Sequence to fold (283 residues):
Amino acid sequence: MSISLSWCILILRISFLNDFINENGFVGPVLHSVIASNPTILRRSLDKHIKPSLDFLKEFLDTNEKIVTAVKRGPWLLSFDLKGILKPNASLLMEEGVPHSKMSLLIALQPRAIMQNVDKMVYAIEMTRSFDIKPTDLAYVIAIAVILSMTKSMWQKKVELYKKLGLTEVEISKAIKRQPRVMVCSEEKIKSLMDFFTNTMKLKPSVIATYPNLLLYSFDARIQPRFNVLKILASKKLLPPHKKIAWLLTESEARFLTNYVTKYLDQVPDLMELYRGVKKTNL
Fold:
């Protein structure tokens, strides 16, 4: 085949592809970004691959905007092995009991999870099942995505780190069941926060298993400011004794401000400055 003929075929293919995916919401910079991230799409058959792939996505994502978002996160979705990987993985999850709504979230937010080899998906499902997470729970698809994002050695290394920091295997499993993302926190962040929780706040490691979201929060933006406020309130006997300090760190921003900052400004005038980090505390 001559070079000129090859170029003509490529130009026609790009033209047909451009028209089709423009109709499905891929326009302007979005289209350019998808092609730049996944040039393989230009070699895929429109009728045999790209259209069926989009039809598959439409089964779970009900708007073009959601499909575009998913493809931007996982550009290979439109050129991946539909029959050998995408459909089998989706079937495995749905047979396990994952509802359509949770499948939609997984594909929209973590599309790479559905693009893993089928044997890896089977392994992730077995692992998630071992934590007794219900397939109908949001934590289930989060756990699937987390497990698929890590190698077995990475996972085990993280487990050993948590053990070293005082959690038992049962407590680690409890934490994962409640918040699977604790396994993707960096080692540096885990060590730093666990040191603060256990040595400064005097919390037992088991408490972190009960409130695993504590490991996801920002130390500077959330943990430290709230601890400063609660420490001051406790020193002035303004903090109700039945309140668990770990639980208070998980309250929404609005509730915490209302119940533990603005509520006590008359008794502690500089409490807002302390909370905002303007004023330092030696406590």
